[in-house]
Amino acid sequence: MRLCFLVEEQYRHDGMPLEVIHQLRAWDHQVDVVWPGRSLIRISEAIQAGSHDAWVLKTVSGGPGLTLLEAAASVGLTTVNDVRAIRGVRDKALAAVIARSKGLPVPVTYAAARPEEFAEIPEAEFPLVVKPADGSSGRAVRLVATPDRLPVPVAPGGPDAPDGPHGGLLIAQPYVPNSGTDLKVYSVAGELYATERCSPLHPAHAVRERQVPLTLEVARITAEIGDVFGLDLYGVDILLGPDGPVIVDINDFPSFRQVPDAVARVSAAVLDLARHGTRGRDASVGEASVREVSVGATSVREAREASVREAAPAAPAAPAAPFTVQPLPRPARPAASIGGGR
User: Fold this and answer.
1) C-alpha 104: how far from chain center
2) Could you tell me the pTM of the whole model?
3) What is the pLDDT of residues 256-301, one digit of tens each?
4) What whole-number distance in Å separates Cα of residue 127 and Cα of residue 145?
5) Could you give the CA distance from residue 232 to residue 236 in angstroms, rounded to a whole number?
6) What totals of helices (H) and strands (E) does the chain contain, helices first?
7) CA count, 13 A, side-chain hemisphere, 224
8) Rounded CA gap, 304 and 29, in Å?
9) Closest by Cα among 240, 225, 239 to 192
10) Cβ within 8 Å of residue 136, ≥6 positions away
11) What b/e readout covers 144-160, taking b as 16+ CB neighbours within 10 angstroms?
């Protein structure tokens, strides 16, 4: 197969996706790499119907790569993830509206062009988490304890100022009390993996990044995010608050850190999506169209059925025990059978 990866400068030396590119080439596929932030691109020639089996995006939010991916989709090329799904999660304000409209556990979200506007939010909802609507990698995320701490300090003319390169819409959400640990759940084309890491709001809280058990409730929420947004390769940041899991961020094509055999799994998923196509936003969830997603030996269909049983009036029962996602062995297949050649 012939694939094109759009990789921006921030990920120039990043293992994800560079190691995936190396793996695909080792499986005898042709992989072209476009660096949208540091190269001249003759787009009228590079982006043509039939030029590649699929285009894959690994860029920062708000970078030029998304426009190129949309151009590829406009001429009928497959994109990984579906370009409409990417647009839906890259804008955090838009993602919050879509997620809450589908009943997903997302905090109440406020939007403003300037941070001082958040002073109008009722004081009872403070502290607030304020961040750029097009942010990524925890950039410029701030915890604001009280209204008098607004506006959030921003250097005049700096990258996060309204007139700076990262200026634009901001969002604010009430802070969710938590242990200082973020739960990051990755979906690799149907398989879910949970990891924990230190929260960017609590850098002093020492947490060893590692794979952790994944509960049925979190598995169900993660799968529903994929259904609602039409994502195939994605990550979800979840906080375990006093009222249960809360979604605080959604990322397309994340790092997949701590996922067992991540490079081989992601590479195989990219090939499968390139061959068979991505779901896209038109595949939005309805209870009648629940997709199967493997979580160890348990599917999300079983997780949802379990949650329905728990919601029905019944005699008290012991809660389901969390289960651990078991690492799967690397498929022992020759390169030709894995990739099927070009």
Assistant:
1) 15
2) 0.80
3) 999 999 999 999 999 999 999 888 755 443 332 334 444 543 455 5
4) 4
5) 12
6) 9, 15
7) 21
8) 38
9) 225
10) 60, 61, 251
11) beebebbebebeeeeeb
